[in-house]
Amino acid sequence: MTHALKMRKQFILDPEKIRTVKKIMNAKTDTEAIERAMDTVIADSKIRNVLMTIKGKGSIKDI
Description:
Order of helices and strands: HH
Oligomer: single chain
Largest sheet: none
């Protein structure tokens, strides 16, 4: 995901969570880890919204 605008922010975060996210996301930097985690949350939200719109529409038939 490309970003045209970047913002500088200061956060107080749990270092163990940052290390865990870096490992899970295979990120080299803390910033990269947080960016990837946010991208994942955004993508998951979009998927969840699509699934909610199709919830109950359709059926499963035995063949």
